[in-house]
């Protein structure tokens, strides 16, 4: 199957712009609308023939059946023997979902109601700190217990009407130091977000926060909340059961912002808007489950990704939100995509016969334009770009800024596609008075190859509902790509070795006993020990 796709990519001739000239309806044919979103993948080399081949590959991989198995609560995460049910966290219809014969929905909705009660009480000043109304909330977590809440809280800044939310993740003491500076322990609530409640970074930061809190209040434990699956470990830390918001092991870390891990988001924007975010995600879930594959937005987004990565062989993709408040979305997608699909063996444990998922990177526009777009336009590697932009901003008084923002976004995808030919560049240089060899030399620097693919996701406005849809859209894209690559997208064994070695090296840094370590590691330890003051 992949050979057919690769042959199509190798045979693709002519420029993307010519595809528009040949088919005036191309933009409509290679785009899809769904509930306030437009995904346009027409500025790529995908043709009807390519799409047909990609869809056939998708069918061969039984994506639809595997999707249904996920939604039905089957243990599709086979290396950990778990179901994958982040979708249950936004199943507000309460339609039963059975895991091992037990409906998980009553528990999900009960926890959601507890979170709502707590968030309301905190926002209303009913739940207080030992120095009065809580003014600041510090979420301590890392990876999936950090990136989602941080990303969504920033994204929904126009809706904030609760206490200020801060996020600490790095074990680097600078992170918690800078966060706590200026906060008052007596009016601060600390959320310890950790599915396992064993993650070194989070536990170190939680202990530091508790010590800081103990300096300012009599009973630090009263101003801590835990979001975890590990009640016993939370109890050992000293957080009482009514301050634990639990979830089950079928919620993966990077898929967890919809449940208790999203408590900081709920505190910031309120339970009503948090529900709107869940409803947006649930709408995308329904679309993913019900729309035929050729009219299914997550499937088409996945196929565009696979075409570029597997078919055309482009090793990375850039996520480029023209939306300052989506500034953490590239980092969020890095974990979502690379922790999910960065695997070298198949479900069966055999070496993959395809490259694993691509490197994902990005930055919000227009900032990226003044940093790395040079390479995107004129470097020798092709980087498929995934642009995102809202039709409206949240600042009506600054509508002219938004027009500039949108114009830049659209201009970039157009420039990538059109490029600038040598003849056009020669014309520009001739106008400036160059001639002969110097004109040729100058023109070469100013020519753009063009024909570089991009997709654009446009939404009306970045509301809680739209954010929910967009994140769920990408979650399902990762699922489809994972199934088609034959990968288990829901484990992350690749993070374990480094964690284990860090535990070994910690005492070595104290003792300096480097026997058994390689020469480089031993040299680094020695340098650090002699320079750490
Ligand atoms: O929520 P926890 O258990 O602290 O884990 C945090 C993160 O660490 C990881 O396990 C990777 O190290 C992620 O998958 C997870 O999101």
* The first-level CATH class name of the largest domain: Alpha Beta
Q: In percent, how much strand structure appears in the residues? A: 5-15%
**Total DSSP helices:** 21
Q: Any idea what the CATH superfamily of the largest domain is called? A: Glucose-6-phosphate isomerase like protein, domain 1
CATH topology of the largest domain: the name is Rossmann fold
The outline comes out as globular
Biggest β-sheet, characterized? Answer: 6 strands, mixed
Mean pLDDT: 97
Percentage of helical residues? 40-55%
Radius of gyration (Å): 25 Å
CATH architecture of the largest domain: 3-Layer(aba) Sandwich
* N-end to C-end Cα span: 60 Å
Low-confidence stretches: none
Tally of domains: 3
The distinct ligands, each listed once, are:
6-O-phosphono-beta-D-fructofuranose
Strand order of the largest sheet: 1-2-15-14-12-13
Protein structure class: alpha/beta
Query: What's the total number of strands?
Result: 15
Can you describe what's shown?
It is a single chain. This protein is of the alpha/beta class and about 525 residues long. It folds into three domains: about 1-70 and about 275-370 and about 455-490, Rossmann fold; about 95-270, Rossmann fold (3-Layer(aba) Sandwich); about 495-530. Helix content is about 50%, strand content about 10%. The chain is built from 21 helices and 15 strands. The strands form four sheets. A six-stranded mixed beta sheet has the order 1-2-15-14-12-13, sandwiched between helices. Strands 8-7-9-10-11 form a five-stranded parallel beta sheet, with helices on both faces. The longest helix is centred in the last third of the chain and has 22 residues, at about 465-485. The protein is globular, with a radius of gyration of 25 Å. The model has no long low-confidence stretch (mean pLDDT about 95). It binds 6-O-phosphono-beta-D-fructofuranose. 6-O-phosphono-beta-D-fructofuranose (F6P) binds near residues 142, 143 and 195. This is Glucose-6-phosphate isomerase. It is found in: Cytoplasm. Belongs to the GPI family.
């Amino acid at each position: 199957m992949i050979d057919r796709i690769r042959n199509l990519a190798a045979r693709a001739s002519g420029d993307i712009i010519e595809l528009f000239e040949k088919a005036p309806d191309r933009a409509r044919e290679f785009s899809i609308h769904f509930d306030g979103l437009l995904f346009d993948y027409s500025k790529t080399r995908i043709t009807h023939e390519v799409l047909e081949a990609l869809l056939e590959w998708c069918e061969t991989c039984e994506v639809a059946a595997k999707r249904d198995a996920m939604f039905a609560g089957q243990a599709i995460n086979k290396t950990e023997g778990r179901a994958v049910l982040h979708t249950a966290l936004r199943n507000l219809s309460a339609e039963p979902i059975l895991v091992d014969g037990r409906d998980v929905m009553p528990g999900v909705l009960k926890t959601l109601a507890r979170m709502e009660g707590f968030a309301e009480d905190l926002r209303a000043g009913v739940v207080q700190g030992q120095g009065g109304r809580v003014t600041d909330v510090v979420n301590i977590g890392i990876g999936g217990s950090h990136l989602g809440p941080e990303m969504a809280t920033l994204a929904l800044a126009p809706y904030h009407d609760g206490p200020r939310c801060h996020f600490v993740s790095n074990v680097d003491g600078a992170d918690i130091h800078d966060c706590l500076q200026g906060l008052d322990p007596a009016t601060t609530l600390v959320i310890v977000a950790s599915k396992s409640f064993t993650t070194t970074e989070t536990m170190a930061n939680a202990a530091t926060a508790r010590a800081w809190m103990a300096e300012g209040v009599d009973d630090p434990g009263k101003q801590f909340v835990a979001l975890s699956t590990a009640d016993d470990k939370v109890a050992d830390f000293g957080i009482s059961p009514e301050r634990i918001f639990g979830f089950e092991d079928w919620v993966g870390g990077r898929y967890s912002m919809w449940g208790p891990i999203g408590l900081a988001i709920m505190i910031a924007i309120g339970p009503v808007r948090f529900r709107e975010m869940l409803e947006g995600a649930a709408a995308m879930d329904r679309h993913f489950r019900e729309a035929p594959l050729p009219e299914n937005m997550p499937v088409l987004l996945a196929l565009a990704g696979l075409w570029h990565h597997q078919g055309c062989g482009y090793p990375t993709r850039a996520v480029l939100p023209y939306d300052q408040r989506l500034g953490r979305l590239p980092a969020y997608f890095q974990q979502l995509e690379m922790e999910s699909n960065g695997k070298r063996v198949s479900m069966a444990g055999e070496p993959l016969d395809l490259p694993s998922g691509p490197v994902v990177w990005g930055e919000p526009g227009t900032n990226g334009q003044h940093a790395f777009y040079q390479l995107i336009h004129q470097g020798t590697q092709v980087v498929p770009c995934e642009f995102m932009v809202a039709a409206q901003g949240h600042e009506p008084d600054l509508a002219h800024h938004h027009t500039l923002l949108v114009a830049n976004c659209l201009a970039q995808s157009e420039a990538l596609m059109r490029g600038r030919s040598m003849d056009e560049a020669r014309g520009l240089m001739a106008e400036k008075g160059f001639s002969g060899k110097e004109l040729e030399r100058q023109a070469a620097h100013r020519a753009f190859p063009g024909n570089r693919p991009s997709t654009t996701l446009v939404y009306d406005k970045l509301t809680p509902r739209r954010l929910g849809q967009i994140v769920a859209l990408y979650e399902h894209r990762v699922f489809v790509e994972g199934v088609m690559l034959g990968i288990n997208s829901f484990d992350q064994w690749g993070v374990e070795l480094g964690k284990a070695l860090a535990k070994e090296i910690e005492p070595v840094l104290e003792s300096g006993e480097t026997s058994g370590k390689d020469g480089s590691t031993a040299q680094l330890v020695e340098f650090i020990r002699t320079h750490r003051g």
